[in-house]
Design brief:
Mean pLDDT: 96
Strand content: 15-25%
Bound molecules: ligand 26Q
Helix content: 40-55%
Radius of gyration: 27 Å
Number of strands: 24
Largest sheet: 9 strands, mixed
């Protein structure tokens, strides 16, 4: 507990530190300071308070010779950091006080920070949650990634269609990072491999420098801080002076251009757009820099190279950094003189790989000729790895297959553990993509069900619910989310229920006010808020949701005085710029929204709202305000989901399929507190094998026919009867994701939701039971699992 006078002193100290930074770091006086100036000053005052725990953590790790985790990820979808830092430091109230004494608005200051959007979606956000949990659990760790100049594009709608605008977060000073110009590694590309004294020597054709930017990531109560190290590319020689002197000014700039290009922009695709040379260069660039960095640190501590796996665990977030295997082997053999076999063994003991998808189009494969052109030495090493694997196992599973380098097989073979991200998904990894490899290496595949950081996804984004929980059960849950179970005895308490509803209402009001102010949309806060927020993907089936909306609208119009439950359907999400079908879905949602929202007959009963540019910060507003969580992917396709966890934790029951972590969420919250519908993964697979399944499903559902008919008639597209031919044709003729088959069950389940929502007591109990029973889904639990089953590391606290 912070004593009141101690708290006052902290607020006073913060206030004077903010003023000091305003004056001396920003060079502004209070009278002329902008919101930006204030925000940066607050951030610097907070950052100062992270530095001591950060140094202490580094010292402790070094002195205690603790094993550390290196988490390699192409994406870290961080969002804003200001509130995260003050909450972990326990000074949120004091910052409020200090700002109010300075005449500044806390909410405005927080909202001024641009999101660090260095990721696409689930995988990148998972990496950010893991950094928070690693620090909270006091596990020595480095996050390694890329400091993209442009994060995920900004989404705008024009005539309901997605437009992409370059994101520019670095145009403002990024206050949380420390530049490390002295930490620089050369990264080579291309060139050739020759032999010198019987040894292979790689002479790259191009080189760039990787330089480090470090952001401390502080854990709960400020006890520990790890480092997120993001790499920026710089030219080895800024300038080709010889070309310049010849008068060739374009060539003079070539080194600069190559370097700038590498870290310029995040690939906005969350499935493989295979064969993009720059993407491969990005992958190698950050992986090679990270491996060099961790090896240098390890060797500087005087260890023998053979001890590497005792001191370092490297986790590969999907196959994107899978080149870590060959790169580590290359350094061990070419630089440290190990034999190939010993190097492979050592690398494997150090490496582990997380699989996030079963979708065939998302499994990375590089054309062998392209790969060999950029990484010739690594291609040789991959051949050696493959030979060794074929020799050891006598199998015919290859990394190099039909002219491709298959990164999944490479990652699997070079990892001592491979994990899926939910129980269902890990089972499917074992039975499908890696079935053959699983037989050859039977104990390699394990499960680590995803989790979310409760600091951001409850404590920070939902102060109303946070305070209610603390008032009800005390503070134990702050340290260990499993203590939310202490809410169980209060679930039927009328006073608790009323307070729970009041918290939800406050969050819905907050969202409504934001929608009004930012998007000039008014919504009815007494309606059920039905939320689907995630990347737009065929398998996630936003089109199933919008078809149900259309069918419901038609039926309300038939009988406007029926006993309907008012609903607001909220959508959020971006489509990959080249994903034509997903963009069609976006346009359809916007078209339907425009049409339905303009209908005076249904206006009070049904609204569709799709605010543009969904991102982490928007999620922090939408999730606490949600009543119903849409998790409706085709069973077997969503590896885990993490938005599903955030929504349920915040008191928003799920309508969902038995897919990904939905299965485990339902197990935890209880089947009575989860609206289940749809085919199972096994049924889905069987259905696909019945010819004509979609024709039959449509023929059997007048309701679905009607919804499809309204689209085909151009009701939502100003009479344009062809605008959605792609979606309609797809549903009729090759409905691989089984929208037509699940439609009736989904519609019926939604009407059950309507009925339950009208029973306020029953609904509140369900919503609160979701919160009380979701403690297991903390990413602290997930990270403890990785630490125990994969990394063999301990909390410095326990060690
Ligand atoms: C690969 C190569 C080239 C271009 C892009 C990519 C690429 C980029 C991002 C491929 C995949 C991704 C992202 C995948 C992702 O976010 N997967 C999600 O991971 C979550 C965390 O485990 C799960 O909860 C989701 O179910 C899964 O879809």
């Amino acid at each position: 507990m912070i004593e009141p006078n101690q708290s006052m002193m902290q607020a006073d100290a913060l206030q004077s530190d903010i003023s000091r930074h305003l004056k001396f770091s920003l060079g502004k006086d209070a009278e002329h300071a902008s919101l930006y100036d204030w925000r940066v000053s607050v951030s610097l005052a907070l950052r100062d308070r992270v530095v001591e725990p950060w140094f202490a953590s580094t010292r402790k790790t070094y002195e205690g010779k603790h094993k550390r985790v290196c988490y390699l990820s192409m994406e870290f979808l961080i969002g804003r950091l200001i509130e995260d830092v003050m909450i972990n430091l326990g000074v949120q109230d004091q910052v409020r006080e200090a700002l109010s004494a300075l005449g500044q608005d806390y909410d405005a200051v927080v909202a001024d920070e641009p999101d660090a959007a260095l990721g696409n979606g689930g995988l990148g956000r998972l990496a950010a949650c893991f950094m928070d949990s690693l620090s909270t659990l006091e596990i020595p760790a480095y996050g390694y990634g890329i400091r993209y100049e442009h994060g995920l594009f900004e989404q705008h709608f024009s005539d309901g269609q997605q437009m992409e605008i370059a994101e520019r977060w670095l145009e403002q000073r990024h206050v949380w990072e420390f530049e490390r110009p002295e930490v620089a590694y050369e990264i080579g590309f291309g060139g050739h491999v020759s032999e010198e004294g019987g040894k292979p020597v790689w002479t790259p054709g191009e080189r760039v420098l990787a330089t480090a930017f470090d952001t401390p990531t502080v854990g709960w109560k400020g006890k520990w801080a790890n480092t997120l190290r993001l790499w920026d590319a710089r030219p080895v020689d800024v300038f080709d002076l010889a070309s310049f002197n010849r008068g060739d000014y374009v060539a003079a700039n070539t080194p600069e251009r190559l370097a700038r290009t590498i870290t310029r922009v995040l690939y906005p695709d969350d499935t493989t757009e295979s064969g993009k040379e720059l993407r491969l260069k990005q992958e190698y660039f950050f992986t090679a820099a990270s491996i060099q960095d961790l090896l240098r640190r390890f060797l500087s501590e005087g260890y023998d190279i053979a001890e590497l796996p005792d001191h370092v665990a490297i986790q590969l977030n999907d196959t994107h950094p899978a080149i870590a295997g060959p790169e580590l082997v290359r350094l061990l053999v070419d630089t440290h003189g190990l034999e190939m076999d010993a190097a492979i063994d050592l690398a494997r003991e150090t490496l582990a790989y997380t699989n996030h998808t079963l979708l065939p189009e998302a499994l990375e494969a590089w054309p062998e000729d392209l790969f060999g052109r950029i990484l010739p030495r690594h291609l040789d090493i991959i051949r050696a790895i493959q030979d060794r694997h074929l020799r050891d196992t006598g199998s015919d599973i290859r990394i190099l297959d039909h002219g491709n380098v298959r990164m999944g097989e490479l990652a699997f073979i070079m990892a001592h553990k491979v994990n899926g991200v939910s129980a269902l998904h890990s089972g499917l990894v074992r039975e499908t993509v890696f079935a053959d490899l699983d037989k050859l290496y039977p104990d390699r595949i394990v499960n680590q069900t995803n989790g979310i950081t409760p600091r951001r996804w409850l404590y920070s984004c939902n102060p109303a619910l946070r305070d209610l929980i603390t008032d009800t059960i005390g503070t134990k849950w702050h340290q260990d989310l499993a203590h939310l179970a202490d809410l169980e005895p209060h679930l039927d308490d009328a006073g608790f229920q009323e307070a729970f509803r009041a918290a939800k209402t406050a969050n819905k009001d907050r969202l409504a006010a934001w929608l009004k102010a930012r998007h000039d949309v008014s919504i009815d806060t007494s309606a059920l808020f039905d939320v689907q927020i995630k990347r737009i993907h065929e398998y996630k089936r936003q089109h199933l949701n919008i078809l149900e909306t259309i069918a419901l609208w038609a039926e309300i119009r038939d009988n406007p005085n029926g006993d309907w439950t008012p609903r607001v359907k909220l959508f959020g999400g971006k489509a990959a710029p080249g994903y034509v079908f997903a963009k069609s879905i976006i346009r359809l949602i916007n078209d339907v929204a425009r049409t339905i929202n303009a209908d005076p007959v249904t206006r009070e009963l049904l609204q569709v709202v799709y605010p543009e540019n969904y991102n982490v910060s928007m999620a922090e507003l939408l999730i606490p305000a949600s009543d119903l969580s849409e998790q409706i992917s085709t069973a077997g396709k969503e590896a885990s989901g993490t938005g599903n966890m955030k929504l349920s934790l915040n008191g928003s029951p799920t309508i969902g399929t038995l897919d990904g972590a939905n299965v485990e969420i339902r197990d935890h919250v209880g089947e009575d507190n989860f609206f289940l519908f749809g085919l199972t993964a096994a049924e889905a697979q069987a259905t696909r094998e019945e010819p004509g399944f979609s024709h039959r499903a449509i023929a059997a559902s007048p309701r679905l026919q009607r919804a499809l008919g309204l689209i085909a008639q151009g009701v939502f597209s100003d009479g344009d009867t062809h605008r959605y031919d792609d979606i309609l044709h797809n549903l009729h003729e090759h409905d691989y994701f089984l929208v037509t088959c699940d439609f009736d069950d989904y519609f019926a389940k939604q009407r059950e939701v309507d009925r339950v929502y009208q029973d306020t007591t029953l609904w509140t109990r369900m919503a609160a039971a979701n919160t009380a029973r979701m403690g297991w889904f903390s990413s602290d639990r997930t990270i403890a699992g990785y630490a125990r089953d994969i990394w063999n590391v301990e909390s410095v606290n326990k060690a």
